[in-house]
Amino acid sequence: MHEFNICLDILNILEAQAEQHQIHHIKTLTLAVGNLAGIEIDALKFSFPIAAAKSIAKDCDLVIIPVEGRAHCSHCVDEIVIKSLWDACPDCGNYDYEVTQGKELKIRNMEVG
Ligand SMILES: [Zn+2]
């Protein structure tokens, strides 16, 4: 599963951070996940505890903040909201837009303890 590998990537980042700051356990992890990032949030929530079972994020609460997909349409010259990268501009029906937000996967916050 694609999301499982994403979890492993996140855990690698967390382990590196933990080592640097001498953190032994992560209690809560908040991730910002863009609607256009190609990540299934349910699959991510399912995979995370399995991927984290032997890590410093064992039994950690995973909080996910969805980030709306936004783009700049070159026809409407306006910011539009899109639900997927396969969507046309809801205003003019063109695909000629540049995504400005929603492709990200970011660690927003992490509570240690
Ligand atoms: Zn448009």
For this entry, give a set of tags:
113 residues; 3-stranded mixed β-sheet; 3-stranded antiparallel β-sheet; 2 helices; binds zinc ion
Record the SSE blueprint.
Layout: H1 2-21, E1 26-34, H2 41-51, E2 61-67, E3 70-73, E4 78-81, E5 97-101, E6 105-112
Parallel strand pairs: 1-2
Antiparallel strand pairs: 1-6, 3-4, 3-5
The structure holds zinc ion (ZN).
Zinc ion binds near residues 73, 75, 89 and 92.
Describe the protein.
The structure is a single chain. The protein has 113 residues and is of the alpha+beta class. Helices cover 27% and strands 33% of the residues. It contains 2 helices and 6 strands; from the N terminus they run αβαβββββ. The strands form 2 sheets. A 3-stranded mixed beta sheet has the order 2-1-6, covered by helices on one side. β1, α2 and β2 (61-67) form a beta-alpha-beta unit. α1 (2-21) packs across α2 (41-51). The longest helix has 20 residues, at 2-21. It is elongated, with a radius of gyration of 17 Å. The model has no long low-confidence stretch (mean pLDDT 95). Zinc ion is lined by residues 73, 75-76, 89, 91-92, 94.
